[in-house]
Amino acid sequence: MNVLVINAGSSSLKYQLMDPDTGAVSAKGLCERIGIDGRLTHKVPGRENVVADIAMPTHSEAIQSVLDILVDPANGVIRSTDEIDAVGHRVLHGGMAFTESCLIDDACIAAIEKCIPLGPLHNPANLMGIRACQAVMPNKPQVAVFDTAFHMTMPPKAYIYAIPYEYYEKDDVRRYGFHGTSHRYVSARALELMGRASNPEGTKIICCHLGNGSSLSACKDGKVVDTTMGLGPLAGVPMGTRCGDIDATILEYLMGRYGYDIKTMLNILNKKSGVLGISGVSSDFRDLDEAAAQGNERAQLALDKFIYEVKKDIGAYAAAMGGVDAIVFTAGVGENSMDLRAKLVEGLEYMGVKMDLEKNKTRGVEAEVQAADSKVKLFVIPTNEELMIAKDTAALAR
Length: 398
Ligand code: ADP
Fold this sequence. Notes:
By secondary structure, the protein is α/β, with parallel strands linked by helices. The protein has helices at 59-70, 106-114, 123-136, 156-159, 166-171, 180-193, 249-258, 262-271, 274-279, 285-293, 297-321, 331-336, 338-345, 385-397; strands at 3-8, 13-18, 25-32, 39-43, 50-53, 86-91, 102-103, 142-146, 204-210, 214-220, 223-227, 326-330, 367-368, 377-380.
């Protein structure tokens, strides 16, 4: 079976053609600068990448260019689009409507549209990707997989905000959480590695998705009981350019002092904050490591702040669940930065967490890195959101 996995942003669109049963990716790539001019980068394992400037006034031309290159005699991997069995879409915000993935029909689209106020930056772009696929592949089953869905098992005390209850009742203001597909994949994989996939009851796992965007989840009995992101993906730990949790008073204070409107303020909090904001160097953790190694104190402070906040949340989730059996590190930073992983668990011996620093010298591959006498397992698990999307898509399409 071939599933085309689509992750549509406002001006970009990522795709992967994969077998949901084996996880084998036959081709993947990226359309960029949609609505500006248009560029396609197409990658097939074992072949040279193809980069082509193709006019992409809208997402429809972008999708069409993806289909064209997938069937291209020289650069393609299938003979005809008939070989694509179904299409899976990553959708950011499912609000309270979606606790799992859904086969896309008019009702599903209407429900995604209803979530636009909750995900104003992403949901419209995700819908453009869906509509473009429906236009060029009208007869293929399409499935929406939501970033929020896996977190919908949180209990009310975790998802309610301490503001007037009417905003929850009338306006759906609550914690939703994001990166849910990643948290679902790595927590399920951790359960497999623990030999608890078929009986997760009683397990307590903390998943740390640490990338450009970062979030933690507390998974008890295999289900999310808390997560760090909130109504939107700006909340939680500091990120590459996002501020994470801050005192809401800061908004009023800075808006008053500088005459910022809310759009300008949110742009600062989304795009100019996080480790970039503190360091003034970069949002990229490799750049920060390099700058800190050369004595840049603000780069070091940014790293220290990130580590401090993630570590605090690990402690908070152990407290919330009454213990922890395993901590999982995933995404760009979690999978690759051995130094940062080591610092995240430094001093947690009192919780029974002890890393084997030799085993931790691993990058981008699945590994178990706790010391022999650690009570808590430490896993590095490369995330694979696309595979989860492909599997959900296949299951619903079948
Ligand atoms: P996104 O949220 O965009 O999917 P990723 O999960 O790809 O992000 O993570 C990107 C981050 O991972 C970047 O900040 C990058 O610096 C970091 N990263 C990748 N490799 C390493 C490494 N070897 N050491 C430290 N950080 C790394």
